[in-house]
Structure formats: structure tokens, C-alpha cells
Amino acid sequence: MKLLKRIFVLSLSVLLLTGVLASFSGADAWAADQKVYKFRMQVLFGPSQLWQYKPFVDYVEQASGGRIKIELYAGGQLVPTDQMLSACAEGTIDLAGGAGGYWSNRIPLADIEAGMPFSLRTLTDVNTFFYQKGFLELCRKAYAEHGIYYLGPQMVDFSYIEAKKPVKTLDDLKKLKFRAVPNTGKLLGKSGVSAVYIPAEEVYMAISTGTLDGVIYGGAESNSTMSYQEVAPYYMVPPINCANQDLIMGMKQWNSLPKDLQAVLDLATQYENLYIQTLNWDLEFKTRARMIKENNLQIVELDKSLLDTLTASAREMWAEAAKKDAYSKQGIDMLLDYLKEVGYIK
User: Fold this and answer.
1) Of 82, 158, 164, 226, which is most buried by a Cβ count within 10 Å?
2) Quick one: 36-341 is in which CATH superfamily?
3) What is the pLDDT of residues 253-299, one digit of tens each?
4) 10 Å Cβ neighbour count for 169?
5) Are 155 and 273 in contact (CB under 8 A)?
6) What is the Cα–Cα distance from 132 to 110, expressed in whole angstroms?
7) Domain edges within the chain
8) pLDDT tens digit string along 152-163?
9) E strands of the chain, at which residues?
């Protein structure tokens, strides 16, 4: 009987010890799951524009149950804007809200990611191309070679022609001189249209004094913040190109996260993309209506013949982009397939 009692006590002790060890093991796992990740994120814009990224930051913290906290910084506060890619890879910062054009010298595909002129024409085009046609995965492969996880696109705006005279045909366009960013200026130059690049804040005076006749800058809201409608009251549709930005993260930081928190960041990126897209689309038409009322803005539709000419010029640029590297070739092939599928080109 004493032997049985001793065996029972010993067995009970083993069970209790095992339970205690198991509870400690569970506690450790629970503690690991509850680790709080603190990340620093820098974006393109100044302090007054940080509100644009608040939905992303708030979504991440709430959906992660407070396990991810993001501290937001304006452009240039931590690193120069054009160095955000390498800063993420090196861990100087953890996330960035940037644009491919800033590092297309390192990742040629980023030029296509940022938006080829006269290619994707609507918000639906952008989303479909990235999320249904495989372009998101291609971007992730290209960025990964530079130590970056490409979270996803942020479609912020479209660029429209705005001028002091109406434009319908190529002849109309050739009679005018525009301000445009270099890529767009190159597109216009291929069609025999004069364009120069000057800082956006100098455009108003240049048009009002006759040095320039128009501008290709952004959409209605962006243009109205510069008061271009006061000196260039004709607004031509459809847009020349989309202006696409992105959200990126250092690959080491990304890999440090458990799968559920990676999923939170992926979903938050899509949420932010939807927020920015719908906000700008809503503002586009509200602002147009206000400028029509206050500035007698005239909406002018470009003739199909002009669109065909500019698209042909754009195709030369697409072909040039495709020659930069294997990723760019694949990206342009994907773009051409999509544009043919939706009927923008033959």
C-alpha cells in the first residue's frame, strides 16, 4: 500500500510539474504573440499632408490589436525623400510612402509602376492591372532584390491638360506651349508639341504673362490649390496619365513579423489605396463643379484622333521602357496585354 501511495504521489508530482512547464511555455508563446512592433514611416509630403496616411496608421494599430504602432514622419524629416528606398532596406526607417520615380534609376520597373502615359485610364484599370493581372507580384519580385517588400500601389491622382485656350486636335495642341514633368514633356515632344519643365509654383505667373499657355500637373483638386484655373480656364479630358505612388517596407522588418501581422499590413495598404482613390475621385468632380461656377471653367473633350496620336507616341515610350531590364520587359508585355484586352489599343 505504501508503495502504491508513493507511486501515486510521484505520478501526481510529475503531472503537476508538466502542467506548470506547459503553462510557462504557453505564457511564453502568448507573450511572443503580444510583442509590440514600433515602426517609423516617412512619406513624400510635408507635415500639412500627413493626414492622408492616418487611415493606414490607424487601421494597422486597430487591426493588430495595438501590436503594431507606426510613427509618421513628413518628407525629409528622417532621410532625403529620394533615399527612402535604401533607408528602408538598411533599417534607418521601416516603412515609406513614396513613388517609383524617385528610385527608377535603381529599379527600372518603378517607372512603369508609377504610370506610363496614355496607358491605364481609370481607377479600375489601376486596381485590375495590379491585383488581377499579376503586376503587384512582379513589383514585389523586383523590389525584393533591393531588400524591400512592396506593400502595394497608392493611386493618388490623374494628370490633365489645362490651358488658356481650348484643345481638341493635335493642331490646337501644337499652337501652345506647356509646363510638364520630363516624362510627359517627352511624350508631347514626340508629337511635335512644345513643353518645358519649371517648378509648379512658377506656372501661374508664366501663363498669366504669356510665357506659357498651359500646364499638365494633376487633377482638378491639385490644380486648384495652385489657382491655375484663374489663368487657364479650359480643362481637357480624358487625362494624360495616372499618378501612382506606393507603400514599401524593409524586407528585414517585414520578415520579422508573424503571418497575421503581415496580413494586417497587406490589408491596410489596400484600405489606404481605396481611401486615397475615392477621396481624390470625389474631390475631382466636386472641385470641377466649384471651378465651373466660380471661374467659368470649361470642360473640353479631346478628339479621338488626338488621343490616337498621343497614344502612338506613348507606345514609343513604352517600348523604350521595356528595354531597360527583364522586369521592365515583362511589365510592358503585361501592360500591352491588358490595354488590348480592354480595347485601348489594337
Assistant:
1) 158
2) Bacterial extracellular solute-binding protein, family 7 (3.40.190.170)
3) 999 999 999 999 999 999 999 999 999 899 999 999 999 999 999 99
4) 13
5) yes
6) 19
7) 36-341
8) 999 888 889 999
9) 37-43, 68-73, 95-98, 148-163, 177-179, 194-196, 214-216, 234-250, 298-301
